[in-house]
Design a protein that fits this description.
Its main location: membrane. About 90% of the residues lie in helices and about 0% in strands. By secondary structure, the chain is an all-alpha fold. α1 runs antiparallel to α2, α1 (about 1-25) runs parallel beside α5 and α5 packs antiparallel against α6.
Length: about 190
């Protein structure tokens, strides 16, 4: 699962940070322009944060993926379970989750915001209607995106809790069976 998350993170982050950089570099502003300076500042800040978030997620993926691939191919005494347990990615699970969240939640959210801001910057001098239309389209998409993200992560937490409860019940059952077997052995 960690490997799949890191691969998805790397791909998403590469694409979206590239698109954001191209949008900033290729944006052509007419001189003179009526676009307010605060809108340029918003665009610059959003683009910079978007790229930084995706580059950070990409960095984590780039550093950890080769280790996970190497561990998955290792043959160690104690089998693959021991190799996975000893792998550095297990100790770095928090960073994997952070990269996943940065890329798939924060990064995608910022990308949608970037689209709306870019439309305002691009169309300010030409058509308020076009900029407004883009914003009217992006806002519901952002709302659905946030609702899905909350639902998805809530479902993951519920599933993790249910799995943990089942694991604890299995351990308790194993303990009872061992206690019963110990009592029988002591009787003989």
């Amino acid at each position: 699962m960690s490997r799949a998350k890191l691969k998805a993170t790397a791909t998403t982050s590469e694409l979206l940070s590239g698109f954001a950089m191209v949008a900033m570099v290729e944006l052509q502003i007419n001189e003179p322009t009526n676009v307010p300076e605060w809108l340029f500042v918003m665009f610059a800040v959003c683009t910079t944060v978007l790229v930084a978030v995706h580059i950070f997620a990409l960095m984590i993926s780039t550093y950890l993926l080769p280790n996970i691939d190497a561990v998955s191919k290792m043959e160690t005494p104690g089998g693959p379970t021991r190799a996975l347990r000893d792998s550095p990615h297990e100790r770095m699970r928090g960073f994997i989750e952070l990269a996943w969240a940065f890329s798939t939640v924060l990064g995608l959210f910022l990308f949608l915001v970037e689209i709306a801001i870019l439309c305002w910057v691009k169309f300010w001098d030409y058509s308020f209607a076009a900029a407004t239309a883009a914003t009217v389209i992006v806002i519901p998409v952002l709302i659905v995106f946030v609702a899905f993200a909350i639902h998805f992560y809530h479902s993951l937490v519920v599933q993790k809790c249910e799995t943990s409860v089942q694991d604890i019940e299995q351990l308790e059952t194993m303990k009872r069976e061992l206690d019963t077997a110990t009592v029988k052995v002591n009787m003989f």
